[in-house]
Batch of 2 targets.
Target 1
Amino acid sequence: MSDTTPPRAASPRPVSPCPRCAHETIEHITGSPVPGVWEVLQCARCLYMWRTSEPARRTRRDAYPEEFMLTPEDIGAAPEVPAVPPLRGPGAGPATR
Amino acid sequence: MAYDDFRGFLDALRKEGQLLHIDDEVMPEPDIAAAANAAPRLGGHAPALYFDNVKGFTDARIALNVHGSWANHALALGLPKETGTKEQVEEFIRRWDTFPVAPEWRDDPVWAENTLEGEDADIFRVLPLIRLNDGDGGFYIDKAAVISKDPADPEHSGKQNVGIYRIEVKGRRTLAIQPVPMHDIAQHLHTAEERGEDLPVAITLGNEPVISIVASTPMEYEQNEYELAGALRGAPAPLSRAPLTGLPVPWGSEVVIEGVIEGRKREIEGPFGEFTGHYSGGRNMPVIRIDRISYRTNPVFEHLYLGMPWTEVDYLIAANTCVPLYKQLRRDFPEVQAVNAMYTHGLVVIVSTKKRYGGFAKAVGMRVLTTPHGLGYAATVIVVDEDVDPFDLPQVMWALSTKMNPAGDLVQIPNLSVLELAPQAITPGITDKLIIDATTPVAPDNRGNYGTQVRDLPETAEWLARLQKLATAR
Ligand SMILES: [Zn+2]
């Protein structure tokens, strides 16, 4: 998907982009038990999750610290930890460690 | 003095003046994490914190810093809160000598009062989750005990595992987990994934305090954490079967989450401010699907802040890192007197030992590197004489000042294994390690110009006791 034509379907209303990766598809995860105080949101691309009542340095793209920003390239280059082992059929003998 | 549930321990902390109830309204972020960040700065008698007036929540109860001082650690072990650090480690060693103590099965676990299943098993409905550090990728659960079994040997209770792992909340019913390759759960997951299976897990929160200690103790693969809990408690650990997975879980937990680590699946995780005092993250890690949540009515959410040391995690993994290393070293080398592995889970280890003959201290240092825990930690090992207290850092510095000559006392071993989170590694997981021999050379190692060492006068111990008494009576 392109960042210039953000789909809004996942979000009940337009919200700011992801503070961390600037993606525009933001999911609504939950709201405050006291109605209307805060919401918990999540970026559909980098999975950053935050509460709307947090300080700007955690919730706004323009105030988000550069050292914590994530790009699609970073996500693509993320290593697998731990690596997924090759499949072994049942009865293939004891697993090696 | 054993606590069977988390609330029993909170009551004990309250009675001892070691639980600070903050009833002013606070913001979920950044207030709660900042308070827990600050609490250990109050010193060796820092209290646990209890919040129940959190903006936007109607019935949140959040306890933090529960193990976050030597006073609270002592109370967790049923010791007087004034007990010194070294004395707590020594008592821990004595109690470990009674290991294993079989657990006790109990009916009617306190967490069976309420249940959410399937689509209703929404973690946000049960836990007042809060975020910790600025760079964290989301909400973390970092003081829960995660229980799993070896899929290749599920009946072997020694091969079951109870451990604390970093868990990120990825959705209402989705978590991420970090199984470090050196840890038992990574072996369980490896076996399950080779077979193309999911790995069932139970995650328990708000545990009685000894469960948190054993779950973060670096035990050997076939040692059972609950049997160590029994030894440390001086009473069997009360357990019950988790209803969905049948996994053995503490009887007195506030919340029991059950589900599976989904086999062969990885997803972007982190970062998270780790116990190393550095963030780690941006890696694809395993994912947990939540299938069932059981919880006590009005659950208390126990959480842990970690950051620039020392914070609660440093107290939680201090004594319990020293003791297994001490026991493993003593098996081969009874000359070993004490082990201080309290710094960053034993990335630095200080050992005091008698010397069998010249060169012996270096052999003890090398043995540290080949213990199970040493394989992932012990980047630096400092070996000191038997009369130096490794818990007394000014004495350790004196040993380094006078007993160490780089010409013959530094042993650097290249390219050894270390946990992937160790920031100093050359490439994650590989580092050089250093043994510093700060012992007095003995024959036939005749280096140095050591005259006779000045020792405490024979009457000093008696005078110390006398002065302490006079000082308290002032
Ligand atoms: Zn994002």
Target 2
Amino acid sequence: MNDAIEAIAARIKSAQAQGEPLRIRGGGSKDFYGGAHQGAVLSTGSLKGIIAYEPSELVLTARAGTPLAEIEATLRERGQMLAFEPPHFAAPATFGGCIAAGLSGPRRAYAGSVRDFVLGVRLLDGKGDDLRFGGQVMKNVAGFDLSRLLTGSMGTLGVILEASVKVLPLPVAEATLRFEHTAASAIALLNEWGGQPLPLSASAWRGGELFVRLSGARAAVDAALHALGGEQFDAATATDLWQDIREQRDAFFDSALPLWRLSIKSTTPPLNLAGRQLIEWGGSLRWLATDADAATVHEAARYGGGHATLFRGGDKCAGVFQPLPAAMMAIHRKLKQALDPAGIFNRGRLYPDF
Amino acid sequence: MTNPVAEPVNQIRQREVVRALSGVLPDAALLFEREDVQPYECDGLSAYRRLPMVVALPDSEEQVRDILRICHRLRVPVVARGAGTGLSGGALPPADGVLLSLARFMRILDVDPASRTARVQPGVRNLAISEAAAPLGLYYAPDPSSQIACSIGGNVAENAGGMHCLKYGLTVHNILKLRAWTIDGELLEIGGDGLDAAGYDLLALMTGSEGLLAVITEITVKLLPKPVRAQCILAAFDDMGRAGQAVANVIAAGIIPAGLEMMDQITTRAVEPFVNAGYPLDAVAILLCEADGNDAEVAEEIARMTAVLQDSGATEIRVSKNEAERLRFWAGRKAAFPAAGRVSPDYYCMDGTIPKKALAPVLNAITALSAKYGLRCMNVFHAGDGNLHPLILYDANRAGELERTEQFGAEILKLSIDAGGTITGEHGVGVEKIDSMCLQFGGAELAAFHAVKAAFDEHALLNPGKAVPTLHRCAEFGRMHVHAGQLKFAEMERF
Ligand SMILES: Cc1cc2nc3c(=O)[nH]c(=O)nc-3n(C[C@H](O)[C@H](O)[C@H](O)COP(=O)(O)OP(=O)(O)OC[C@H]3O[C@@H](n4cnc5c(N)ncnc54)[C@H](O)[C@@H]3O)c2cc1C
């Protein structure tokens, strides 16, 4: 393994010397996501394998190129899971890519996001230095939290070599309910339920149907089923539904229109924009298939106290992530400079400026 | 630990800074006479004291911005201070700079029941948020033992945890948005009303950054629905190792208790006279193991946990029969720090975090160190996430005890690192553990921390000398460490 790491470090050093852009790639399952690619591919494929996994510690450490599917299968065997339900989007999805992209699935609003579960990372920075931040323990405030800063940074700050994440036990019981509601009443209900001690673990609304998943102790799920009413799905249908939403295979995502992701305040009323919407995360995530222009979508996101991302399709030239205020952008540029002084990693993948 | 340092105030500099600040602050918000600044000489780690040159007490964001701009222009160090309950000297004032108190930022700006969030100023006390949300059936989950006193701004700066963090997360998991000001007076709006934000995760970077990156003036926190009910198990063990193993067994059984805390015998014996909790005083250690949720759920989880604890060799198991009994179980845990203060003139609280499998060997090693240094040590801690809080009992008035305590503490931190853990789980590095950072991180990591610091604060004016040691300091420390086998906390140098 050291040879593989040394080879990557050597590649980084030569790229740094020449100011040559490098495009970090795991399984390529999220090639579509983020700004357009630049530079030669630097693969993490040589970094494979789970390094440590002890169920009673609730911690798993694996190399970046390990298939996400392998990690999830290993956890399932021991009755545990990645509670943030990361989308794979394609079979070769890797662990490192999952952390660098920072995308979470249906359980996110109720269990937390990728970054909430990241405990430590090992990376090669833009100088090829081998750095370790965080660790394998649940609580750690020694030094700045660079592991979480790396999470979702789209590979612009370094090559993640390994990461440690907190894992959780699989819920003992799970059930999915279906209701019929307009978008507005679904948003109101989801927020109302969010304020009650219910074992919610996922929600989705599209085309007049609201789905919610309950997970937890058998008694808690049973009580909530009773309290909420609705039509209960059988286990297989429910699993497919949440898998399809997580992996964007649901019919909603069959669209030639650009797909936007708006992360906003959960109580924001239905977006008054052209196109179709799918609402997740208790109201705080809105998927929008629309041909509305970027400025209009950004404005809607700002109105909801959040931000919009051009997730799939559309014109990426102006950048896919919502532009930042000048003071925030200045800090971003300096952080990039701090970890990747020659600006070689994933140029333009996060913001066109760097 | 250094004793009060009577550094002479540079009066010319002091006059210059006071004059500049009096342009943006009323007289009553600017302190510089010795007797006025004295109350700010230390935080909760009182072994370190230093008088600030100036104390500023702003009450508006404009004032904070202007103070920072002035200090930036005049190159004056600035240390933010919340409630001053920190346990690592993070708010130790600068002798040549401004202590910026956020104590007047006390307003709860908004509690929104629909989105389950509260927007608060940094000086608001942790518990006050839950009190304000209680009528709505909501609360703010992170509950440090200091919650009646500590500020939410300080909680963010330290990434504070509490008894219920095992299930509900730390500060970083329970906040959404910050307004913060860089040293050059630029506003950063970090995070958002959604669950994530565009760009780098500066919300996570700010959390636990110990006042080194920016001054926080507003925080939006998440509120959670209050569980219908909670119940607690008190399990006694006649062996430290078995108690440690029981903790791992509970987690391995797929249970995430709402709280999982351990107290050793010295602790139960110290607290019992004050709280009359009825702790089994012959037990070597006790575990407090809590379940919350609805009635049926709690009953189910209590039954599962009881079975695991029994199988793990508990010598006695009591389940709280009512709310009064549950609170009695917890009373001793909550009174542990004050009790330490009553059974010993001074105590020194450590904060290493280790993997759960290392609990038994590390606790045994601490017992051995306790004998070696001739100092008693109470262990009362967040067992579920492996966050130790050894309280070393000493008497500062006895020659040499403070030094022995320091050495004992440093050895515990080394043990934590060697066990695959960290020197601090929730109290921060501050000035106290700055040398131990040299053991936990290599030069390349420290250089990266400095680069991140410089991205926010090029001239290292915010909380200088804290949290991240200079490479030079580590080189010195390494020499001391090797040669003398005894470390002296030399006067802090600039970042
Ligand atoms: C008896 C006792 C029990 C404790 N129990 C716990 C516990 O269970 N869990 C736990 O995590 N901690 C605990 N602590 C430690 C302490 O209460 C926490 O670290 C708390 O978060 C500090 O808050 P404060 O307002 O007192 O901050 P201060 O002590 O005033 O400051 C702490 C740090 O934060 C910085 N800071 C403060 N406000 C701001 C701001 N607005 N912007 C930028 N930086 C700022 C300061 O510069 C300093 O570095 C305990 C302390 C005591 C005395």
